[in-house]
Fold this protein.
Amino acid sequence: MNIAVFASGSGTNFQALIDRVKDGYIPARIALLVSDNKDAYAVERAQKAGIETFILSPKGFKSREAYDKEIIKKLKSKEVGLVALAGFMRLISGHFAKEYKNKILNIHPALLPAFKGTHGVRDAIRYGVKVTGPTVHFVDEELDHGPIVLQDAVSVSEDDTEESLRNKVHRKEYEVYPKAVKLFVEGKLKIEGRRVRIIE
Ligand code: GAR
Protein backbone atom coordinates (compact mmCIF):
# COMPACT_ATOMS: atom_id res chain seq x y z
CA MET A 1 0.00 0.00 0.00
CA ASN A 2 1.17 3.51 -0.80
CA ILE A 3 0.95 6.02 2.05
CA ALA A 4 1.01 9.80 1.72
CA VAL A 5 2.02 11.69 4.86
CA PHE A 6 0.92 15.32 5.23
CA ALA A 7 3.02 17.59 7.48
CA SER A 8 3.42 21.33 7.96
CA GLY A 9 6.18 21.49 10.54
CA SER A 10 9.02 19.62 12.13
CA GLY A 11 7.70 16.22 11.14
CA THR A 12 8.86 14.12 14.07
CA ASN A 13 5.78 11.92 13.67
CA PHE A 14 6.57 11.63 9.97
CA GLN A 15 10.07 10.49 11.00
CA ALA A 16 8.60 7.87 13.33
CA LEU A 17 6.57 6.53 10.39
CA ILE A 18 9.62 6.56 8.11
CA ASP A 19 11.61 4.62 10.70
CA ARG A 20 8.89 2.03 11.29
CA VAL A 21 8.42 1.46 7.56
CA LYS A 22 12.16 1.07 7.19
CA ASP A 23 12.46 -1.50 9.99
CA GLY A 24 9.57 -3.51 8.51
CA TYR A 25 7.04 -2.89 11.30
CA ILE A 26 4.66 -1.13 8.87
CA PRO A 27 4.34 -3.26 5.72
CA ALA A 28 3.81 -0.39 3.29
CA ARG A 29 5.62 2.31 1.39
CA ILE A 30 5.61 6.04 2.06
CA ALA A 31 5.19 7.24 -1.50
CA LEU A 32 4.73 10.95 -0.88
CA LEU A 33 5.14 13.78 1.59
CA VAL A 34 2.60 16.56 1.09
CA SER A 35 3.25 19.93 2.72
CA ASP A 36 1.74 23.39 2.61
CA ASN A 37 5.02 24.84 3.85
CA LYS A 38 8.19 24.72 1.76
CA ASP A 39 10.30 25.55 4.86
CA ALA A 40 8.97 22.68 6.96
CA TYR A 41 11.72 20.47 8.36
CA ALA A 42 9.52 17.55 7.32
CA VAL A 43 10.50 18.36 3.72
CA GLU A 44 14.17 17.81 4.57
CA ARG A 45 13.31 14.56 6.32
CA ALA A 46 11.59 13.37 3.14
CA GLN A 47 14.56 14.31 1.00
CA LYS A 48 16.94 12.47 3.34
CA ALA A 49 14.73 9.39 3.17
CA GLY A 50 14.36 9.57 -0.61
CA ILE A 51 10.62 10.25 -0.44
CA GLU A 52 9.00 12.36 -3.13
CA THR A 53 7.65 15.70 -1.90
CA PHE A 54 4.62 17.62 -3.11
CA ILE A 55 4.70 21.15 -1.74
CA LEU A 56 1.67 23.25 -2.41
CA SER A 57 1.20 26.71 -0.96
CA PRO A 58 -2.44 27.57 -0.33
CA LYS A 59 -1.78 31.08 -1.63
CA GLY A 60 -3.63 31.80 -4.83
CA PHE A 61 -6.31 29.14 -4.31
CA LYS A 62 -9.87 30.45 -4.15
CA SER A 63 -11.08 27.86 -1.66
CA ARG A 64 -9.98 24.93 0.48
CA GLU A 65 -11.70 22.65 -1.99
CA ALA A 66 -9.77 24.03 -4.96
CA TYR A 67 -6.51 23.50 -3.04
CA ASP A 68 -7.46 19.99 -2.00
CA LYS A 69 -8.47 19.05 -5.56
CA GLU A 70 -4.93 19.76 -6.69
CA ILE A 71 -3.61 17.49 -3.95
CA ILE A 72 -6.14 14.76 -4.76
CA LYS A 73 -4.90 14.68 -8.36
CA LYS A 74 -1.41 13.98 -7.06
CA LEU A 75 -2.63 11.32 -4.62
CA LYS A 76 -4.46 9.54 -7.44
CA SER A 77 -1.39 9.58 -9.64
CA LYS A 78 0.57 7.90 -6.83
CA GLU A 79 -2.23 5.38 -6.10
CA VAL A 80 -2.32 6.35 -2.45
CA GLY A 81 -4.33 4.02 -0.21
CA LEU A 82 -3.81 5.87 3.06
CA VAL A 83 -3.36 9.53 3.93
CA ALA A 84 -1.66 10.07 7.30
CA LEU A 85 -1.93 13.61 8.64
CA ALA A 86 1.06 14.29 10.90
CA GLY A 87 0.99 17.87 12.12
CA PHE A 88 -0.72 19.14 8.98
CA MET A 89 -2.09 22.43 10.22
CA ARG A 90 -4.83 22.92 7.67
CA LEU A 91 -8.43 21.88 7.78
CA ILE A 92 -9.22 19.58 4.93
CA SER A 93 -12.33 20.24 2.84
CA GLY A 94 -15.48 18.16 2.98
CA HIS A 95 -14.74 17.18 -0.61
CA PHE A 96 -11.39 15.66 0.37
CA ALA A 97 -12.90 13.94 3.43
CA LYS A 98 -15.57 12.33 1.20
CA GLU A 99 -13.19 11.38 -1.58
CA TYR A 100 -10.88 9.55 0.87
CA LYS A 101 -13.55 8.49 3.35
CA ASN A 102 -12.17 6.03 5.93
CA LYS A 103 -8.74 6.39 4.37
CA ILE A 104 -7.41 9.42 6.25
CA LEU A 105 -5.86 9.16 9.70
CA ASN A 106 -4.86 12.04 11.96
CA ILE A 107 -2.84 12.27 15.15
CA HIS A 108 -4.00 14.77 17.73
CA PRO A 109 -2.04 15.59 20.91
CA ALA A 110 -4.95 15.33 23.35
CA LEU A 111 -7.55 12.78 24.39
CA LEU A 112 -10.40 13.64 22.05
CA PRO A 113 -13.06 14.88 22.32
CA ALA A 114 -11.18 17.09 24.81
CA PHE A 115 -9.03 19.94 23.57
CA LYS A 116 -9.71 19.92 19.85
CA GLY A 117 -7.93 22.41 17.61
CA THR A 118 -4.37 23.54 17.15
CA HIS A 119 -3.23 23.80 20.79
CA GLY A 120 -4.15 20.45 22.30
CA VAL A 121 -1.21 20.30 24.72
CA ARG A 122 -1.35 23.93 25.84
CA ASP A 123 -5.10 23.82 26.34
CA ALA A 124 -4.86 20.63 28.41
CA ILE A 125 -2.17 21.90 30.78
CA ARG A 126 -3.90 25.23 31.22
CA TYR A 127 -7.14 23.47 32.03
CA GLY A 128 -5.32 21.55 34.75
CA VAL A 129 -5.96 17.99 33.64
CA LYS A 130 -4.07 15.21 35.42
CA VAL A 131 -4.06 12.86 32.42
CA THR A 132 -3.78 13.57 28.71
CA GLY A 133 -2.29 11.86 25.65
CA PRO A 134 -2.46 11.36 21.91
CA THR A 135 -5.45 10.25 19.84
CA VAL A 136 -5.28 8.64 16.41
CA HIS A 137 -8.59 8.95 14.60
CA PHE A 138 -10.15 8.71 11.17
CA VAL A 139 -10.82 12.08 9.58
CA ASP A 140 -14.31 13.15 8.62
CA GLU A 141 -15.87 16.51 7.65
CA GLU A 142 -15.73 17.86 11.22
CA LEU A 143 -12.63 19.08 13.03
CA ASP A 144 -10.90 16.42 15.19
CA HIS A 145 -14.05 14.35 15.15
CA GLY A 146 -13.91 11.04 13.24
CA PRO A 147 -13.91 7.53 14.79
CA ILE A 148 -11.08 6.93 17.25
CA VAL A 149 -8.54 4.21 16.46
CA LEU A 150 -6.12 4.43 19.42
CA GLN A 151 -5.48 6.61 22.43
CA ASP A 152 -2.83 6.43 25.10
CA ALA A 153 -2.41 8.32 28.34
CA VAL A 154 0.37 10.24 30.03
CA SER A 155 0.21 11.67 33.54
CA VAL A 156 0.56 15.39 34.01
CA SER A 157 2.80 16.13 37.00
CA GLU A 158 2.86 19.31 39.03
CA ASP A 159 6.30 20.12 37.63
CA ASP A 160 5.25 19.78 34.02
CA THR A 161 5.50 22.80 31.75
CA GLU A 162 3.84 23.03 28.37
CA GLU A 163 7.15 21.99 26.83
CA SER A 164 7.80 19.00 29.07
CA LEU A 165 4.23 17.82 28.58
CA ARG A 166 4.55 18.20 24.82
CA ASN A 167 7.65 16.00 24.94
CA LYS A 168 5.82 13.33 26.93
CA VAL A 169 2.87 13.37 24.53
CA HIS A 170 5.20 13.26 21.54
CA ARG A 171 6.97 10.17 22.85
CA LYS A 172 3.60 8.41 23.08
CA GLU A 173 2.67 9.64 19.62
CA TYR A 174 5.68 7.87 18.14
CA GLU A 175 4.27 4.61 19.52
CA VAL A 176 0.58 4.95 18.77
CA TYR A 177 0.75 6.45 15.28
CA PRO A 178 2.92 3.73 13.72
CA LYS A 179 0.76 1.14 15.49
CA ALA A 180 -2.47 2.60 14.06
CA VAL A 181 -0.96 2.88 10.58
CA LYS A 182 0.21 -0.73 10.75
CA LEU A 183 -3.28 -1.89 11.77
CA PHE A 184 -4.82 0.08 8.90
CA VAL A 185 -2.36 -1.25 6.33
CA GLU A 186 -2.98 -4.81 7.50
CA GLY A 187 -6.74 -4.33 7.10
CA LYS A 188 -7.37 -4.84 10.80
CA LEU A 189 -9.51 -1.76 11.46
CA LYS A 190 -13.27 -2.13 11.14
CA ILE A 191 -15.35 1.01 11.54
CA GLU A 192 -18.77 0.47 13.11
CA GLY A 193 -20.44 3.85 13.49
CA ARG A 194 -18.26 5.85 15.83
CA ARG A 195 -16.45 2.79 17.11
CA VAL A 196 -13.42 1.18 15.56
CA ARG A 197 -12.95 -2.51 16.15
CA ILE A 198 -9.45 -3.96 15.92
CA ILE A 199 -9.54 -7.40 14.33
CA GLU A 200 -6.65 -9.54 15.51
C1 GAR B 1 1.91 16.55 16.84
O1 GAR B 1 2.02 16.63 18.24
C2 GAR B 1 0.47 16.35 16.44
O2 GAR B 1 -0.25 15.62 17.39
C3 GAR B 1 -0.01 17.77 16.36
O3 GAR B 1 1.04 18.47 15.77
C4 GAR B 1 2.26 17.91 16.21
C5 GAR B 1 3.19 17.79 15.03
O4 GAR B 1 4.48 17.47 15.47
N1 GAR B 1 -1.21 17.88 15.58
C6 GAR B 1 -2.19 18.73 15.86
O5 GAR B 1 -2.15 19.53 16.79
C7 GAR B 1 -3.39 18.64 14.93
N2 GAR B 1 -4.49 19.33 15.48
P1 GAR B 1 5.56 16.89 14.47
O6 GAR B 1 5.60 17.83 13.26
O7 GAR B 1 6.85 16.92 15.22
O8 GAR B 1 5.13 15.50 14.09
DSSP finds six helices and eleven strands in the chain. The two ends are 19 Å apart (CA to CA). Residues 79 and 143 are 26 Å apart (CA to CA).
